[in-house]
Amino acid sequence: xxRFRFTALLLACLSLQPATALAAKARPAVLPPYAGxxxxxxxxxxxxxxxxxxxxxxxRDSPAVIRDEPLTGYLRHVLCDTVxxxxxxxxxxxxxxxxxxxxxxxxxxxxxxxxxxxxRVRTEAELAAVMAHEFAHFEERHTLAGxxxxxxxxxxxxxxxxxxxxxxxxxxxxQASLYRALFSYERNQERAADIHGFQYxxxxxxxxxxxxxxxxxxxxxxxxxxxxxQQRSTRYDRTAFFATHPTSLxxxxxxxxxxxxxGDDGEDATEAFTSAMAKWRPIFLSDxxxxxxxxxxxxxxxxxxxxxWTPDLLLARGELYRMRGNPRDLVAAATFYRDAIGKGxxxxxxxxxxxxxxxxxxxxAEGRTVIADYLVRDPNCQDAAMLRSLIEQP
Length: 394
Description:
This protein is mainly alpha-helical. The protein has two domains: 6-262, no CATH class; 284-392, Serine Threonine Protein Phosphatase 5, Tetratricopeptide repeat (Alpha Horseshoe). The protein is 64% helix and 3% strand.
């Protein structure tokens, strides 16, 4: 996950193994004593904390934050079960309605969970792994160390540029080396947070192997996105010069090896996670469909469904195909809408989508009938006037 950066957060203020049985840990693990919440020491650190506090106030009041006490309380419960009651007390959790798969944590204890992440994790164990990773950054004060490293690198580069200008010495290679060292430093922090987060997971009631499985699935989704956009698959066997994170393949590998070494027993808590997300999944699915990512969205829907295409997933799949709009997509979309309705879909949008798909495939009479049914079910919909004009056309 990408850690906190000033500019990003300022803008923001505006091998699967789906085991569900509860399994006791074969051997207990003990976490080191908690050192307590870090307090800024130097003048620079106090200034940084002041900026962080102001940014958090803006985030807290942002309309992008989902204000739902049961949801936030559930996330806190998972975090506390993962890192312990003593540690989790220092964290404020904000759920931000952003369809991207991401999470972050600031040095002063504000954790952001993007709704796109909640749509992609499949179990409490996977959610716990991501939250443990972010908390590890917080407890190890990685962002503070990164801030200092960036400032130091910037100072050195400024002096190199100045002295090179006086002496006429080329400085490009030196600056490139400094950049390389800085990004390598950030990647090492990410690896450390992965390993530290894994230790939290291993000491908790959750199954540690879920961590590597999550990253493997993210690689598969990225490949599906690339395929859908007719792009080359992402190369996971090499690290880009400006990469701040290890590749997903590297992370999957060392996390899997840790699970093999330390044992992969524990809970997945799939049903508990599914129940907690039931209210929000249709909303998060709707946000995902707006990303214009057919391949990734189709992969995600298929993964969520498994062998059970529920009405909400069938409706989302119908919307996905209808929005792409190829003639064959419209035929498929009509089928998905019918299946959703047949399985008891209660969302009137299933009738709207079916009616529009039928109209666009030349089945005008049936399409008008279905849209008229939709307008009875949702007479105050935003596009009621447009839909009435469609069904009133000769």
